[in-house]
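In the laboratory, one determines a bound structure by crystallizing the protein with its ligand and collecting diffraction data. In a computational setting the workflow is compressed into a single prediction: the sequence and the ligand go in, and a structural description comes out. We illustrate the idea with NAI.
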Amino acid sequence: MSENLLKGKRGIITGALDENSIAWKTALKAKEQGAKFVLTNAPIAMRMGAIQDLAKECDTIVVPADATSVEDIEKLYAEAKEFLGGNFDFLLHSIGMSPNVRKGREYGDLNYDWVQKSWDVSALSFHKMMQVAEKQDVMNEWGSIIGLSYIAAQRVYPFYSDMAEAKAILESIARSYGYRFGKLKNVRVNTISQSPTKTTAGTGIGGFDAFYNYAEALSPLGNAPSEACADYIIAMFSDLTRYVNMQNLFHDGGYSCTGITEEIVEKFSDKK
Ligand code: NAI
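The predicted complex, in structure-token form:
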């Protein structure tokens, strides 16, 4: 693996809850590749304490911020800028949560206050992070901003509930802000659409095991593990991908382009 892909780069990594989190793996790899960054998560996630261990390992600090609060994001950027000694080259939005999914509400019986909460936490927070970054002018030229998405933005996964719309909004925000930030500061904005991954957010979705195994069977390469997702994020933060902008990038072992496999044909064939 090449080294120092992110040498001299500074940034913010949201969403590291525990060692399974995609953001956790990304932080370790960003450190390995020479980046300096600040970790952040919702104040409520601090209680678990694990993120402090990660911070120690990465020689950094944790600044609590609720990503739905513009005020918290403003404070986060101000503190991070002081700690890092300059503006940012990358931002990772690795945040998702739906009260409807958590509490098992069906798509035909959604609690609309919770829908607002799902969309605010999982999608609008991405816009807020960028709008505050623009207003505070904290992004360096040729910076890179990534959000994490899922294929339920394009296709129906019944148990994904109101998170499907959240991801569709997230991807749309990446396009719109990728245009705006591109023009303003040559900053690119993309989403990575990741395979099902065994994390707290992932396994909280009803029927997760089934669609994890199904995707594993359908993908020619199998499901992309979280470490590989972290590698892709690092590549997207590096200068090797400077002209990739406004894209939803599938990172799924080929799942999204596969209609059927020989094994599935065999399984469903009438001739046994
Ligand atoms: P995770 O549960 O480790 O991370 C989700 C994070 O969101 C947690 O750290 C949580 O504290 C944070 N969060 C929730 N509400 C917040 C708020 N108000 N302010 C700030 N942070 C808040 O799970 P994972 O899988 O690493 O999730 C990261 C991203 O990857 C999410 O956007 C998720 O939807 C996405 N993703 C996950 C997949 C999976 O199967 N695990 C598949 C495709 C995308």
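The CA atoms of residues 10 and 86 lie 8 Å apart. Keep in mind that any predicted model is a hypothesis to be tested, not a measurement.
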